[in-house]
Every structure is written in structure tokens, then in C-alpha cells.
Amino acid sequence: MAAEAAPPPQSPPDVDPRSGFCAATRTFHSLRPTVPLPPPSLPLSFPSFAFSFLPSSPLPSHPALIDAANGDAISYPELLSQIRSLAAALRSSGAVSKGDVAFILSPLPSHPALIDAANGTSSTAHKLPSNLPTILLDSPRFRSFLQISESYPTVEAVVIRQSDSAAILYSSGTTGRVKGVLLTHRNLIAATAPLAAAASAAAAAPAARMLLTVPLFHAYGFAFCLKAAAVGETAVIQTERFDAKRTLKAVARFRLTHLALAPPAVLALVKFREAGCAGAASVGDVSSLAVVTCSGAPIGTDLIRRFLASFPNARLTQGYGLTETTTGVFRFHGEEASQRIGSVGRLVWGCEAKIVDSGTGIALPPGARGELWIRGPLIMQGYIGDERSTSEILNSEGWFKTGDLCYIDDDGFLFILDRLKELIKYKGYQVPPAELEHLLQTHPEITEAAVIPYPDENAGQVPIAFVVRQPNSTLNEAQVTEFVSQQVAPYKKIRRAIFVESIPKNASGKTLRKDLVQVAFSRLQSKL
């Protein structure tokens, strides 16, 4: 595993005040305001750090968490009380000790206090190995753990260091196998500190009410849930499969101000509003919606404009991060999103970035396209039990190689083009699938689309598309290929279109390209 990250570096004096680029080191530096972090040597756990931002007397009176399905809510006093009770019960019973790894297996979030526990529900516990100690979340025993009890024996306080492991999250595995990403308390502290500082600066503003439609085991949902607790927001948890109408009804019911979505969910909301569905009026008043955060995959500029037309009172803001970076390493502040449609924002405080030519390894200036590298306190410690994969992606100087093809413009805004390993190699040309997907989704008869490479004897690879048609559409393959060919260079043309009922995605909304490759090989037997 990598060594503990050093304190964020100080920017050299010759940094461009517009882009943050230092020509001497060919490195981009953050231009965000400085956010103080506790000294790395100070013993401190992430929960202690996060809850230190909440007012001690009184605690926020609004709910900490709401279940979108039934409206059940947990207040901040209840949340903190139950977390303390659960921690005391688990430690005094010997169920969890320092250094243990706890695994939560549940179809629902069940309870936020479970960040510190190893559990399953009665419907899922059979999936766990029989030799693991298990606590059922729906059992009387677990419910008793949430109640403060004088019977818990006093146990010695555990010293938690910021370099200690805090969480293991798994990369999505959309193109290959999943890997366990080890994050420390320091990683989580560094991720939360800027958000808490921003919330403190806007203390007079009403607390945000955010709907989380992304799973909490994914870095996207995990980070937003932790952020909500640290800054005193209300997190509304929606566990059912995403549905546009259900989501908008939740906005109206709970007067939600913020949504956290993946690009396919944004597309579904836009198409629902554009279609003028019979149920559109029945969802209720959604005027409370102020900000929609979209992350997890690139989103096209056409879809952004369509969203703004469909939801004129809301702001669409993007961010960029990976499981390996704990949270977003590029994001927007305030109204910045309106300045750079299609960008994912500027570099967060404490981090450095490079755009590197993947062939030569040379760092590139603003405007040049290459692989994005990131360094700073948000970078993971490594892949658990996989030193080889760790060394391939995290070098000795602490630079994390994202694998994303990007560029940073003259004002420091990052633009994501595609995953390097997903680029289609056509006769030496590089074709970004995301570009073609965004184009296909502008067709009025296409609901969703995904593009993958397919082997070709002459070209090496050619783009083929998977298309979901609108209900009752008679759109055919020739019309799809012609629609694309009229708008792109010849080497980017779609060579085949396969119509499907749905595009396979993982729980966070990312397209499972590896599944589509298998479908393509089974359907396309003839030479393209």
C-alpha cells in the first residue's frame, strides 16, 4: 500500500492565476481558497471530525435522514444517539474491535450507524460465509444496540489515527473486474473539510434537502451521505430502481432542493418532461429544486441545454471524481457551471493535476488532450490485496493515473472526453464512444444509446451502437447509421446498430460495456 499522503503542497509563485498551470513543473494547481486540515499526526477519526462541525447546542432541528419510500425520518439528536449506542454495544460485546473489517449486506441502507458494523438482514445473510460472526439488522438484538443502556461495560477508548483504514469501496468494474479501494480517515477528512467550510460560510442559508438516487456503497452516494452529516443537511434516501416520475414526486413531497444523479437519470428526467406525459402534471410542484449534481460519466452539452430548458429554475452542476479519489477532485462553485457548459469544474483545494501524453509520458499545457493525473490527500492508499494493480496506477511520487482522456482549458476548467481504454481505435484514429452516444441521444426516436468497439480485419476496430427506441418507433438500422454519418467525420461513423430493450448498467448508472461486448459477439456473426 502507498505511504500516508504528505500535506497538500504549496503552489509555486509562477502559477498562472487563470488556469493554475505552472509552466516550470507542467502541473496544474488549485486556485480555490485554502482550507485548513488537522495535522496528519493528530489522532482523529473521520466521524469525530465530521460531527465537530455540527452545533452542539442545540443540534439541527430538521431531519438528518428521510426514507423516500415511506417518509420515516431520523433527527440529528436521534442519529448521534444511536451511533454512540451502536458503537458502545458492538465494542462491549466484542463484535467489533480496532482493525476488524466489517461488511454490510442489505438491500436497504437500513441505518446510517452501520458505517461501523458488520451485518446482514435475514433475507440476505445466507449469502455470507457461515464462519463469519453475523448480526441481523432486522433482529431484536440489533434494535437493542440502538438504545442507550447502562448495562454496556466501560471499554478502553480506542485511539484512531488519520492514517488508519476507514472504508473499503469497490470500483464499478464496467469494463473489467472490480477492485477494493482502501480509504483512510485522512482521505475522508480531506474530502469533507472544504464542503464543511463552504457550508459554514453560508450558515444563514436554509439547510439543503438532497435526494440520493445513487447507491450508498458507491463512492458518489457514499461521499454525499457523509457530506450531508457533516454540514447538517437532510439526506433523503431513495432505494428503489430509478424512475423519473417517482423522483419528481419525491421532489414535490419533501420540497427537495438538491438531486444527486448519474447522466442516464438526467436523460430520463428530461425525456419525461419533454414528452408531456399524462403523469407529468401529477408529480406536483417541483419549484423547490435548485441544484442537480450530475456525475459518474460524461454528459453531453445538448443534454445539459435540454435539462436547463426543462427545469428553468434549477442549476445543473457537474463534478469529477473516482472511487480512488474518495470524492470529486474537480467541481463547480456557485454559478460557475453556467460559464463552462460541458465542463466538470475546477480543481479542488489541496490537489494537483497533470495532463499527460499517454504515449510519451510528457506533461502537457492548457488546452492539450491527454490522460489526467491527480495527486493530493484525496488519493486512495491502494487496492486492497492487489499491490500489482496499485503500482500500475499510483506511482512513487503519489500521482494517480485516472485513465481518462481530458483537457484543462485556459481558465482551469476540466473537460472529460472519454475513458482511454474505451476509445475505439479505427485505422490509427481514436473515436470516443461518449461523443457518439451523446449524438445518438439527440435523435427524437432514441431513448438511450451505447457505443462499443467491434473487431474489424481492415480497420482494427469499428464503432457499433446499441439503441433503445422510443415506444412505437419504427426507426431502423439504416436510419440510425445515416443520422450519425451526416454529422461526424467518416472514421467516426457507426457501422452497425443493434436495437435492445434496455442498456445494461451497474447500480450507479454506468453502462456495462463488457456485457454489451458479449451481446455484440453473439449477435454479429457476419463480417462487418
UniProtKB/TrEMBL annotation:
<comment type="similarity">
    <text>Belongs to the ATP-dependent AMP-binding enzyme family.</text>
</comment>
<keyword id="KW-0547">Nucleotide-binding</keyword>
<dbReference type="InterPro" id="IPR042099">
    <property type="entry name" value="ANL_N_sf"/>
</dbReference>
<dbReference type="InterPro" id="IPR020845">
    <property type="entry name" value="AMP-binding_CS"/>
</dbReference>
<dbReference type="GO" id="GO:0009698">
    <property type="term" value="P:phenylpropanoid metabolic process"/>
</dbReference>
<dbReference type="GO" id="GO:0106290">
    <property type="term" value="F:trans-cinnamate-CoA ligase activity"/>
</dbReference>
<feature type="domain" description="AMP-binding enzyme C-terminal">
    <location>
        <begin position="435"/>
        <end position="510"/>
    </location>
</feature>
<dbReference type="GO" id="GO:0016207">
    <property type="term" value="F:4-coumarate-CoA ligase activity"/>
</dbReference>
<keyword id="KW-0436">Ligase</keyword>
<dbReference type="InterPro" id="IPR000873">
    <property type="entry name" value="AMP-dep_synth/lig_dom"/>
</dbReference>
<dbReference type="GO" id="GO:0005524">
    <property type="term" value="F:ATP binding"/>
</dbReference>
<keyword id="KW-0067">ATP-binding</keyword>
<dbReference type="Pfam" id="PF00501">
    <property type="entry name" value="AMP-binding"/>
</dbReference>
<dbReference type="InterPro" id="IPR025110">
    <property type="entry name" value="AMP-bd_C"/>
</dbReference>
<protein>
    <recommendedName>
        <fullName>4-coumarate--CoA ligase</fullName>
        <ecNumber>6.2.1.12</ecNumber>
    </recommendedName>
</protein>
<feature type="domain" description="AMP-dependent synthetase/ligase">
    <location>
        <begin position="128"/>
        <end position="383"/>
    </location>
</feature>
<dbReference type="InterPro" id="IPR045851">
    <property type="entry name" value="AMP-bd_C_sf"/>
</dbReference>
<dbReference type="Pfam" id="PF13193">
    <property type="entry name" value="AMP-binding_C"/>
</dbReference>
